[in-house]
Specification:
By secondary structure, the protein is mostly helical. It is globular, with a radius of gyration of 13 Å. The model has no long low-confidence stretch (mean pLDDT 85). It has one domain (3-61). 67% of the residues lie in helices and 0% in strands. It has helices at 3-8, 19-26, 30-40, 44-61.
Amino acid sequence: MSKAQKVLDPSSEGHPYLMGFFAEKHGLSLKAAEVILYSNGPSRIACDAAARAFLAALALRGRY
């Protein structure tokens, strides 16, 4: 895949997450995905880390 094709692919690293894709990837509700994406900006690394932290916090509370 060329660099131009990767930029146009919504699942590529060079493109911000789409909410539905992000929610499905991490097993989140759309509302949780929306909050995480909004608060962490377009960085996939930051959003992935925030999703893992959110799920870990929920697991500690026994909610997930």
